[in-house]
Each structure stands twice: as C-alpha cells, then as structure tokens.
C-alpha cells in the first residue's frame, strides 16, 4: 500500500511517446485519474472507474448510468497558437516551458464524458473550438455554473445538456467543484467563477490581447494549478486510495507502467479455450461463453447475459475485468475469448462467438453437466 501515490509535480509528457497526446497516451495520467475520481459522489454513493473495458479510457456503470470519461488538459498556455505569436515571442522560452510543464501536472487535468451523443461534439471538442471559450477552463466552468442554474446565455448550453446524466451525479455546482477540487476557481461566498482575465459576459474577445494581459492570465492560471495540486495532495494524505497496488512511473521511452505490461491482442487458440474451461469459475463469464456458444454468430447483449446469469451490469463489468487479468496472467495475451460489439440500435453492448470458437467451447465443456438454456 502506498500512502502518497499521486505525484503532483509529475509532467505527463514524460511518459508519453514523442508526438502523442498525454491525454490519450500517458499511462500515469490515466492511473491518476482513476485513483482520484474513484470515490463517493456528493450523495455518498460510490463512483468507481474501470480501466478494463475495451476501447474505453475510463468507464463507469451503475444504476446512475453508464459513463465513458476521457482526459483533457484544461489550462491552455497559448504558447503555440499562431494568433498569439506576436505576444509569446516577447517572453523567454524558459518561461513558456515552465507554464507548459505546470499545465501537464494533475492540477491542470480534468475528465469529461468522451462519447459522442447523436454524432455531435463532445465537451472537450466544443470548449476547444467555440470562439467564446477558446479552450479556457475558467470560461468552461462559467458555462457549467450557468448550466446548473438553468441560464440561457451559455455558449456550451446544448453541449452540456447532452451529458445531463453526468452533471446530475454531482447535484449542483458546489458538488461538482468539491468533487474535482476546483474550489480555488470559485468564490465560495458568491458562487461565482474567479476568471483569469477580466470578464463581462460572453461575446467578448477571450484571448489575452496584449503582453500585460497575457502575463496576468498566465499568473492566475498557474496560481490555480498550483493551488489545485496542493488540494489534491492534501486530500490524498487525508484519504489515501484504498487497495491501490504500487504503481511505478516509467521513464520516457517506455510508456508502459510496471503493472501495465503490453500484451499482444492475438486471438485465443483451441488449446487455450480448453484451458479456460477449467480456469474460469466465474458464473458470469461462463454464462457469456455458454450462451454465445449455443448461439454462434448471434449478438448476445449485456441485458441478456444479466438475465441469464442473474447478475447485475456492474457485476458483469467487474467480471470482465477479472477475465482480462486471468488471460494476461495465464496466456500472456490481452484478448477475450469472445468479440464485443455495439448492438444494432446502439443501445447496448453485446458478445459474439463465431462457429469455430463456439465449437471449441462446446467441446471443452462437453463432459460437464448441461446448463439449462
């Protein structure tokens, strides 16, 4: 057990492959997000984030809904924006790099729902591209404040509304702010946002227009990141993550953490299917394989598996995580014995075995007592 897992000085670019985005490719950042935001919601309900769901960065499934979260570096430095070049070139590069380095610590990172709804922009995309936001987190938080208050003058109103279930988890702005350690960006007495630059209302030019304005923006943004890092460190000392295995940060050039060895995604063989028959004792995973083997080529949904096994969706997700660890340990592969797809209408996930793998599983379990279909 480590009592101080989160290093608030760690630069997530340092374990990201050259040319890649730390939000997507830093294993340390993903781990930190999982550790920090897997905790009780404001109403006391546990909120656990899973990293074993295929094609998901962070995944949560409970009676409150299903959420696919992604990371976002939320404090833009503007040091590489062409439109800001005439200002940035007046500043020593060492200062620019210091700002970028601080921005890639955990205090400068957030998570938002990353799944598109109806093919429209995610929160990350909308706040980055909207001319009245320009990626600024103080303005993003102002939009979130107005969303909770139901105010109409809100550039991100429609975007945030598409993720109403996510924002409902936190109850109100205070719950959202406390959960994500954003207190230093909000005036507690007035519940207003502390902007990095003077702000009247949306519709104004949001980029710093002069060197003095930029330096003021940079100072306030860095103060916020540093304050949030201190809050995160203090929170962790008071409430160290439970059941956390030791996590070793890998140096640049080796992007896999010590407990995140890279495994091939090769399909399982007939012999490995035979071995699974004796290794898998989990009723949910056996239910998936049994039901899919009886219906080769067909899509068997999460809902059908839960009904078949009498287990909940969260139980199914947890069981899949256990299967991932089992296959890695026994076979050295990062593969499941079945395929995972979206259902035709996109409303659920489903499993499927082709004829060959279905026959392998039926042969491997042929000596077992039949299970009712």
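^ Assign residues to that structure.
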């Amino acid at each position: 057990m480590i009592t101080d897992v989160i290093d608030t000085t760690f630069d997530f670019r340092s374990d990201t492959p050259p040319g890649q985005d730390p939000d997507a490719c830093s294993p340390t950042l993903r781990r930190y997000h999982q550790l920090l935001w897997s905790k009780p919601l404001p109403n006391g309900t546990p909120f656990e984030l899973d990293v074993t769901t295929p094609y998901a960065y962070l995944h949560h499934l409970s009676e409150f809904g299903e959420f696919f979260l992604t990371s976002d570096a939320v404090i833009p430095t503007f040091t590489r924006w062409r439109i800001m070049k005439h200002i940035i070139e007046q500043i020593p590069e060492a200062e620019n790099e210091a700002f970028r380095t601080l921005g890639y610590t955990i205090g400068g990172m957030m998570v938002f729902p990353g799944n598109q709804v109806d093919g429209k922009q995610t929160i990350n995309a909308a706040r980055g591209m909207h001319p009245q936001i320009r990626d600024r987190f103080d303005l993003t938080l102002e939009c979130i404040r107005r969303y909770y208050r139901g105010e109409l003058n809100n550039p991100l109103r429609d975007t945030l509304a598409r993720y109403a279930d996510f924002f409902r988890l936190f109850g109100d702005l205070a719950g959202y702010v406390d959960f994500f350690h954003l207190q230093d960006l909000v005036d507690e007495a007035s519940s207003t946002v502390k902007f990095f630059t003077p702000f009247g209302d949306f519709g104004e030019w949001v980029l710093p227009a002069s060197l003095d304005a930029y330096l003021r923006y940079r100072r306030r943004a860095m103060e916020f990141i540093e304050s949030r890092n201190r809050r995160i460190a203090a929170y962790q000392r008071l409430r160290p993550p439970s059941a956390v295995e030791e996590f070793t940060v890998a140096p640049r050039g080796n992007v896999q953490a010590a407990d995140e060895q890279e495994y091939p995604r090769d399909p399982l063989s007939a012999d490995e299917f035979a071995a699974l028959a004796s290794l898998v004792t989990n009723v949910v995973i056996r239910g998936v394989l049994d039901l899919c083997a009886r219906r080769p080529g067909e899509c068997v949904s999460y809902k059908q598996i839960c009904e078949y096994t009498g287990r909940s969706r969260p139980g199914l997700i947890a069981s899949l995580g256990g299967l991932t660890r089992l296959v890695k340990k026994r076979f050295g592969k990062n593969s499941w014995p079945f395929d995972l797809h979206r259902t035709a209408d996109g409303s659920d996930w489903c499993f499927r075995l082709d004829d060959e793998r279905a026959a392998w599983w039926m042969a491997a379990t042929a000596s077992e007592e039949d299970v009712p279909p």
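DSSP finds 15 helices and ten strands in the chain.
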